[in-house]
Amino acid sequence: MNRILITGGAGFIGSRLARTMVLQGKQVRVLDNLAPQIHGVIPRGLGVEAMSLAGVELIRGSVEDLSTVAAALRNIDCVVHLAAETGTGQSMYEIARYNRVNSLGTANLLEVLANDSSRTVQRVVLGSSRSVYGEGAYICPKCDGGGTRVFPAGRSIDRLRSGLWSPVCPSCGTEVRPCATHEEDPARPNSIYAATKLAQEDLVRVGCASLGLEYCIFRFQNVYGEGQSLMNPYTGILSIFSTRIRRGLELGIFEDGMESRDFVHVDDVVAAIAASVLADRAPNLTINVGTGVGTGVLELAQALVAAFGGCSAIRVTGEFRAGDIRHNIADIGRLQRELEIKPLINLEEGLRRFAAWVNSEPLPEDMLERANSELRARKLMS
Length: 382
Fold this sequence. Notes:
By secondary structure, the chain is of the alpha/beta class. The protein folds into 2 domains: 3-137 and 180-377, 3-Layer(aba) Sandwich (Rossmann fold), CATH 3.40.50.720; 141-179, no CATH class. The protein is 37% helix and 16% strand. Strands 3-2-1-4-5-9-14 form a 7-stranded parallel sheet, sandwiched between helices. A 3-stranded antiparallel sheet has the order 7-6-8, with no helix packed on it. Strand 1 (3-7), helix 1 (12-23) and strand 2 form a beta-alpha-beta unit. The longest helix has 21 residues, at 95-115. The radius of gyration is 20 Å and the shape is globular.
């Protein structure tokens, strides 16, 4: 695989992958629309600057445009498909846009491949999301004497309004405790964003099988690190909080602060993608990419304030957003078995590196309250 196309390649993950591939001696082409919400009105940042590297060709355009996709795919061996709209909250009211970019954009990619008699692409790698699991896997302490793995439905608005944050067993109604979610566990999207990511997965899996292409689908956990967008108020809890810490503003924590996520550093994510590109054969599997360690959001906020040496107050608000999940922790056994990848950067080291990088960047405007106001106006946040 010598000629690599990275869709969304000027973004957080894609730009670091582009550098890695160039260092491996690969020819890299990037297709990216340089969206202002991520890159600013005048595109800037590490992702855009990476496009000036020797060996990187940039096509500015959207996966929504079939002719642009066709041009980007010419003489390519492997496609890493990262172009997507991200973020749970915004997806709940910009439904058509998320569907166009995520679902239709992936369909465009596969349609070009299906109709190109001179196709050179041999492998497709998709960046998907842990959000497809919905609430994911839990342990019921009551069913069958305790220890039974169960898969709760999304939490109801009525329960959330009552401050009943924990999911319950679908069989007996008992509150359950989280455990690691496996790739073979059921997918139950709880947001429009998650639904479009699952659609991407199905399109790639079915499309590649029918076209005789190798594939690898990655379900990323909460990716963070140096280079992520500091301007997007709709996604990336660390970037949102970092701006407020630098401005000395309060950090508002949803629910009771005990909700948890599996935070994985971008360099570990890039290592996994690179391994799938460089492998002699792709695994033709779906693979979790995380650390296997859950961290509470309140604990994360405290650690981030400490990493910045800041003084922001932290307040647990009891507010909630429609579509959010309570917990998610990845089982990463398949990642280790299939690609021999084990995450190397723990959260303490990752936060230290992230804070040092953020402090070297211009201070962005804090747009969190504007984003939250949009959700409240649509009754998607309370």
